[in-house]
Amino acid sequence: MGLSSRSHIADLDAARGVLMLLGLVLHSADVYRVGRWVVHDPSGNVAFDWLVTAIHLFRMPAFFWISGFFAALSLDRAVPTDFFKRRFQRLVYPMVATMLTFNLLQQVVLDSLPPANVRQPTAFAHLWFLVDLLIYSTLAAVVMTKGSLLDRALSRLLCGVRRPILLICILAVTTAIPILGAAVVGKLAGHDLAFGNVTSLERLAANVVYFSVGMVSYRSRTLRDILHGIHPAWFVPAGGIGVWLAQVVQPGFVVEVLLEALLVWVAVGAVLSFFRQAFSQPGGFKLWLADASYPIYLSHHFFVILFAGLLLSSSLAAPVKCALVLGLTSRCSAACAQRARNVGVLHWLYLGRPMPRAAVDAAPVRPVITPTQDAEVRPGTD
Question: Distance between CA atoms of 287 and 115, rounded to whole angstroms?
């Protein structure tokens, strides 16, 4: 049974927006952790490594679950060709526009910094998830339409389970299988199977189950209700144990993959439950968050690198630098997003769709989202 409740869409819109904006926190903290990022400030400390690990534990899994949910919503309301056309516009237009503007500018900044403090980013940098989403969406349009063989198989596996603990265990094992499979293939090949500089088998395997379960969850109220039944308070022990395992214990690979998948699903359920409780009704801020978080995320990477680079020679403590980078990045990215939302051609380039007619006729007033617009996937993470 598909979902028709408008309030339920509102909470997932808000969740996706917040998860995207957490990218600003993540990348600001990345600069000051002990492990090296694109820009590395030697004044950092291990506390930022713990923070980055905690965010990584749930952010992208929850994001891909939500993206799969909205992919099923769109796919069930349109023919596959129309679905792919909208997804292509929403993913590829902003990706190309960002690469030709902000990513080129950030490369100029990186080239001006001391080589010892720089690690060159991959071709897509923080846009990697758009590539993976496009691949998942293409596969979904081919093999995960409603009633398809794969859809029926996943539904039979997951939707008959009524006990939350058993469902989480099944989800953890299901999530671990492609990850372990990709690792075995990589070991046999002697290296991770990369597809040029675009993506890799290991990366696609890491999130494919979250996306697929999100699709099945849209079509199954039972599965949604079990995931939403995980109390938000469970996020604290799941996140704490996950960070402890990654930073301190570091068990064997197979055990780590299984335990991490188990903890991630608890954390994802807790996050979804929190947003269902806190953001169940649509409102002005939530509509802004759903619309603005995408262009904010697209531009933020450049501003983090810019301001972190300017502060490299500063004697300020790492937490102060991080706060400054985050604050300045948030302000500048929000200004860029506001411009993109109010200028027709920029709206196409950085949001992947035309401006709503109401916005064109009534200046920058945010229009009410219609059910048709609701069906569009609003992607957002790393």
Answer: 42
Domain residue spans in the chain?
A: 6-374
Give the pLDDT of the chain (382 residues) as one tens digit per residue: 445 444 448 899 999 999 999 999 999 999 999 988 999 999 989 999 999 999 999 999 999 999 999 999 999 998 889 999 999 999 999 999 999 999 999 999 999 999 999 998 877 899 999 999 999 999 999 999 999 999 999 999 999 888 999 999 999 999 999 999 999 998 888 777 888 778 899 999 999 999 999 999 999 999 999 999 999 999 999 999 999 998 888 778 899 999 999 999 999 999 999 999 988 777 778 888 888 999 999 999 999 999 999 999 999 999 999 999 999 999 999 999 999 999 999 999 999 998 876 554 444 444 444 444 444 444 444 4
Helix (H) or strand (E) holding 124, with range, is: none
Phi, psi of 17 (to 5 degrees): -65, -45
DSSP secondary structure string, 208-265?
A: HHHHHHHHHHHH-HHHHHHHHTS-GGGHHHHHHHHHHIIIII---HHHHHHHHHHHHH
Which run of H or E residues covers position 312? none
